[in-house]
Write a structure and sequence with these properties.
Layout (H helix, E strand, L loop, with lengths): L5 E5 L6 H14 L7 E5 L5 H7 L6 E4 L16 H6 L2 E6 L2 H7 L3 H13 L3 E6 L3 H5 L3 H13 L10 E5 L13 H18 L2 H6 L1 E6 L18 E4 L6 H11 L1
Parallel strand pairs: 1-2, 1-8, 2-3, 3-4, 4-5, 5-6, 6-7, 7-8
Bound molecules: 2-phosphoglycolic acid.
The site of 2-phosphoglycolic acid (PGA) has 13 residues, from strand 8.
C-alpha cells in the first residue's frame, strides 16, 4: 500500500511572528486537498497557537521546529511536548542539522526528544544527514546509520505510533543544490535497513515514512518521483512562498 505523502514546511527563524501569521493566512486560502497528502507548517514557537487558529478549518497541520524532553519543571527557556499539544501541534522536527551544529544537539538529546514526543502523541520528524566532508570521504552510510541508531535507541513504536525520518544532507540545505535522486536512493536504503534491523517488519513497513530535505524547489521536486521509497519533503526556503510550496506538492504527486 502506498504511504500517505507528507509535505512539511520548516519556516526556521526566517519571518517575524506577524509575518508568519500573515503567510499562514495565505496558505490557508491556497493549500487545498491534494488527494490525501498531509501538509504541515512548522513556524516559530511564538506563532504556533495563532497559526493553529488560522488553520482550524483547513486541512493544514502545525508542527514545532524543536521540543524539550521533559513535560514540565525547572528548564529555563524550554518548551515541553505537553505544551506543544495544547498549542495544537501534532508534529515536531527533532535533530535538525542547524541545531546539531549551532546548539550542540547530540544523538542522545535527539533520542530523549523522540521518546518524549511519542509519549505525548506527537509524531517526531527526525533529521539525519552527512556533511560535505563526510560525503567526500565516503562516510555517508556510516554517519546516517549511526545517527539513526543513536536517535532510535530504545524506541519501540506501538500500535498506531508514527515516525518520520528525514534525509537532510547538510551540504544541500540552503545551498540551492538538492541531492540527485540517484544519490539519495542508496541513503534511503541505508535508513530503511537500519529501521528494519530495529523494529518488527510490520512496524518498519507501516509506521515509518521517509522524506527528503535540502534545497527542494518547484523545479527539482518532480525528479524525486522516481524514488518509490520517498514519501515527501521537508522544505525550508521554498516553503516561504505559497506558490512554490503548492508547486512542489503538485510536481511530486
Ligand atoms: P532548504 O532547508 O529547503 O532551505 O534547503 C531545508 C531544511 O533545512 O529543512
Amino acid at each position: 500500500m502506498k504511504k500517505q505523502p507528507i509535505f512539511i514546511a520548516n519556516w526556521k527563524m526566517s519571518l517575524a511572528p506577524a509575518e508568519e501569521i500573515a503567510l499562514a493566512r495565505k496558505f490557508s486560502d491556497a493549500v487545498g486537498d491534494f488527494g490525501g497528502a498531509e501538509t504541515v507548517i512548522c513556524p516559530s514557537f511564538l506563532s504556533l497557537s495563532a497559526i493553529a487558529s488560522v488553520f482550524e478549518k483547513s486541512g493544514i497541520q502545525i508542527g514545532a521546529q524543536d521540543v524539550f524532553w521533559q513535560n514540565s519543571g525547572s528548564y529555563t527557556g524550554e518548551i515541553s511536548p505537553a505544551f506543544l499539544v495544547t498549542a495544537g501541534c501534532r508534529y515536531a522536527i527533532i535533530g535538525h542539522s542547524e541545531r546539531r551544529q549551532n546548539l550542540g544537539e547530540t544523538d542522545e538529546m535527539v533520542n530523549r526528544k523522540i521518546h518524549a514526543c511519542l509519549d505525548a502523541n506527537i509524531t517526531p520528524i527526525v533529521c539525519v544527514g552527512e556533511s560535505r566532508l563526510e560525503r567526500k570521504n565516503n562516510h555517508t552510510d556510516f554517519v546516517i546509520s549511526a545517527q539513526l541508531e543513536g536517535a532510535l535507541t530504545g524506541v519501540d513504536l506501538v500500535g498506531n505510533e508514527k515516525i518520520i525520518l528525514a534525509y537532510e544532507p547538510i551540504w544541500a540545505i540552503g545551498s540551492g543544490n538538492a541531492v540527485e535522486p540517484e544519490e539519495a536512493a542508496p541513503v534511503l536504503a541505508v535508513m530503511k535497513q537500519t529501521v528494519v534491523n530495529l523494529w518488527p517488519p510490520s512496524i518498519a513497513e507501516n509506521n515509518v515514512r521517509y522524506i527528503y530535505g535540502g534545497s527542494v524547489d518547484a523545479e527539482n521536486a518532480s525528479r524525486f518521483r522516481s524514488l518509490s521509497s520517498l514519501n515527501g519533503f521537508l522544505i525550508g526556503g521554498a516553503s516561504l512562498t505559497v506558490r512554490d510550496f503548492v508547486s512542489i506538492i503538485k510536481n511530486f504527486l
